[in-house]
Design goal:
A hairpin with a 5-residue loop joins strand 2 and strand 3. The protein contains four helices and eight strands. The chain is 26% helix and 28% strand. The chain has one domain: 3-Layer(aba) Sandwich (Aminopeptidase), CATH 3.40.630. Strands 1, 2, 3, 4, 5, 6, 7 and 8 form an eight-stranded mixed sheet that branches. Helix 3 packs across helix 4. By secondary structure, the protein is an alpha+beta fold. It is globular and about 40 Å long.
Length: 174
């Protein structure tokens, strides 16, 4: 089994990360396809563009050979989070979106590793909470988030077209 580490993505990796995200999200049962939400898939393909926003970075889990096994976009300032609903107005919060794990690396804890890296980053930035969103099509991730300590927050829920999107919070204790 490989030992993966988390680091910031390099700009020359952004295109490959975008392709990974498109593949992962388009293969989810019950998730809208590219023909249904072309703007969303365009954003996934060009995920590196999100890093032009302040306090926004892409984290990757890489093997010792530097192969990208998964990625996530971390937002240190929620005003740049870019979701529907009220999440972008949350004070003293960070968030992450677009967590994707390569099929070849599934079941090796990559999603959890990336999630814990985001929790650590938010803790270091002294945020009061970390906000995420997920859908029913992402049940594996949903269960992992709850096991780590995220709690559903209906006030963060919204609709993305015809797709219900559910908000979760991870609150830091003093």
């Amino acid at each position: 089994m490989n030992t993966y580490t988390v680091r910031n993505a390099h700009p020359h990796e952004f295109s490959a990360i975008g392709k990974l995200m498109v593949i992962v999200y388009s293969s989810l049962d019950g998730f809208p396809k590219e023909s249904e939400q072309p703007n969303y898939y365009r954003m996934l393909a060009n995920v590196g563009d999100l890093t032009t926003k302040p306090h926004t970075e892409i984290l990757v889990a890489v093997s010792p050979e530097n192969t990208i096994a998964g990625a996530v976009v971390y937002f240190g300032d929620m005003q740049y989070y870019g979701s529907g609903g009220t999440a972008t107005q949350e004070p003293n919060a960070a968030g992450f979106r677009l967590l994707a794990v390569d099929d070849a690396a599934r079941g090796q804890g990559i999603g959890k590793l990336l999630t814990l890296a985001c929790i650590q980053k938010a803790r270091e930035q002294k945020r009061e909470q970390l906000i995420i969103h997920t859908t029913r099509a992402m049940q594996t991730a949903w269960k992992m988030y709850e096991a780590i300590g995220f709690h559903p927050s209906a006030d963060l829920d919204f609709m993305q077209g015809q797709l219900p999107v559910f908000g979760f919070r991870y609150k830091f204790t003093a």
